[in-house]
Amino acid sequence: MTTITITAFEKSPDRGRGLARDMRIRWALEEVGQTYNVRLVSFAALKEPGHLALHPFGQIPTFEQGDLALFETGAIVLHIADHYQGLMPPDPNARACAISWIFAALNTVEPPILELANTRLLEADQPWTAQRLPLLEAHIRQRLEQVSVRLGDADWLEHTFSAGDLMMISVLIRLNSSGLLDEFPNIAAYVARGEARPAYQRAFAAQLAVFLANEQGG
Ligand code: GTB
After folding, report:
1. What is the domain-level CATH number for residue 133?
2. Are residues 114 and 187 in the same domain?
3. pTM above 0.85, yes or no
4. CB 175 within 8 Å of CB 192
5. pLDDT for the residue 218
6. Among the atoms of ligand 1, which is closest to the Cα of residue 106?
7. pLDDT in tens, 90-133
8. How is residue 160 annotated by DSSP?
9. What is the pLDDT of residue 78?
10. Closest protein CA for atom 22 of ligand 1
11. Taking CA atoms, which of 40, 46, 182, 192 is between 20 and 30 Å from 160?
12. 88 CB less than 6 Å from ligand 1?
């Protein structure tokens, strides 16, 4: 099988805490047992023609295998799940449900989480921010409540672990340090279940190793 190469930040701003989006791809590849190479990219190189040919928005991650070059984590995880065993139920209806959760994670749950993160990062000193933050947190709470109701006391969103869970947990992990997950114990436990998976642990260690190597190299 042709080698898989993904891209990741040369110096991730999260200092290897697993928040950059290459983590989702690493995790998916670990779940299906596929080895992969990583090409580390600087922030400057992201916007250069070589990388823009792979990713029109000049971002990470990308996925290359033979003639195929993909961008967008949703598309990449879906591709991996469809081509290797371990992330997609074989039944066509169950597959369609798993895909619904990938879209739900990216289209419905992630946007308010990103809005909160961006407001904290980019608008912290703006006069409107103190009033805006509770509103943004309320948007997130609403989504968490809805996911919490659907999840109930199940381990995973649809019977068995799937690419839908991988994407939903990847999105929710961003809230780990916010305190918001503590309000929804079943979601906190769901995220912890995902993080405890050996494939997640291997992926996390691999991306942390990039940061640690950088630290040592100066
Ligand atoms: N919709 C795209 C996808 O899902 O693939 C979004 C890809 C994306 O946002 N990539 C980011 C990127 O390349 C890295 S992950 N940004 C550089 C740019 O746009 O110029 C986002 C990210 C970055 C840093 C942290 N962090 O430090 O905590 C977390 C998440």
Report:
1. 1.20.1050.10
2. yes
3. yes
4. no
5. 64
6. 4
7. 999 999 999 999 999 999 999 999 999 999 999 999 999 999 99
8. S
9. 98
10. 20
11. 182
12. no
